[in-house]
Amino acid sequence: MKYLKIYGLNLIIMLSIFFILSFIMTILSYFDLIGSSITSIIEIVIMIITLFIGGFLTSIKTNNKGWLEGIKIAIIFIIVLLLINIIFIKQFNFKSIFYYLIITIPSILGGMIGNLKKCWQNKCFFVSYISVIRGIQWA
């Protein structure tokens, strides 16, 4: 139940960030403040920001490995996006699967950085560093 609450809350945060940034991009595009060539780049940046924040937040709240938490939240987010894509667009191809696999990378990085931040706050980074140095001295 604890993990369901963590993943559910982070998924709601991720979807909120995604829809707010997409709404802002749509308004800017509607009033021709950004061009159509830049719109596709901004779409990718929105996905990167959303998945990075999701992986970061999930990794901070759990005790598992950061990269694993990043993969878990990315898969959950991608499943939600695929369901939305199938319901509204009804177009599914291999290119979109490849795109969704590529955008898991920011979530993995966010999870690793979140785990590092949590470790930095608990001072376990220094303990790991000292144990590595002691291991080098004994070798």
Please describe what this structure looks like.
There is one protein chain. By secondary structure, the protein is mainly α. The chain has one domain (2-138). It is built from six helices and no strands. It is globular, with a radius of gyration of 19 Å. Mean pLDDT is 82; it is low at 127-133.
How many domains? The number is 1
**N-to-C span:** 45 Å
Share of helical residues: over 70%
Percentage beta strand = under 5%
Largest sheet: none
Q: Report the strand count.
A: 0
Structural class: mainly alpha
Please state the CA-atom Rg, rounded to the nearest Å.
19 Å
Mean pLDDT across residues: 82
- How many individual helices? 6
The backbone outline, from C-alpha atoms, is globular
| Contiguous uncertain segments of 5+ residues | 127-133
- Give, in order, the helices and strands: HHHHHH
Per-chain topology:
Blueprint: H1 2-30, H2 36-61, H3 66-88, H4 94-102, H5 104-121, H6 124-138
Helix pairs in contact: 1-2, 2-3, 2-5, 3-5
Summarize the structure.
The protein is mainly α. It has helices spanning 2-30, 36-61, 66-88, 94-102, 104-121, 124-138. 86% of the residues lie in helices and 0% in strands.
Entry keywords:
139 residues; mainly alpha; 6 helices; globular
